[in-house]
Amino acid sequence: MAWNEPGGGDRDPWSSRGSGDQGPPDLDEVVRKLQERLGGLFGGSPPRGGGQAGSGGQPSMRLISLILGILLIIWLATGIYIVEPAERGVIMRFGRYANTTGPGPHWRIPWPVETVVKVNVDEISTLTHRAAILTRDENIVEVELTVQSRIQDAADYLFQDQDPERTLNDATAAMVRVVIGQSKLDFVMTEGRSVVAMSIKERIQELMDRYKTGLLVTSVNMQPAKPPEQVKAAFDDAIKAREDKERLENQAEAYANEVLPNARGTAARLLADAKAYRDRLIAASEGEAARFLAVLDQYHKAPEVTRERLYLETLQEVLTQNPKVLIDVTQGANPLIYLPLDQLIKQQTQAGSAEPPPPSINTPPALAAPEQRVIEPPQRVVDRERRAR
Question: Which residues are listed as membrane-spanning (predicted)?
Answer without folding.
Answer: 63-83
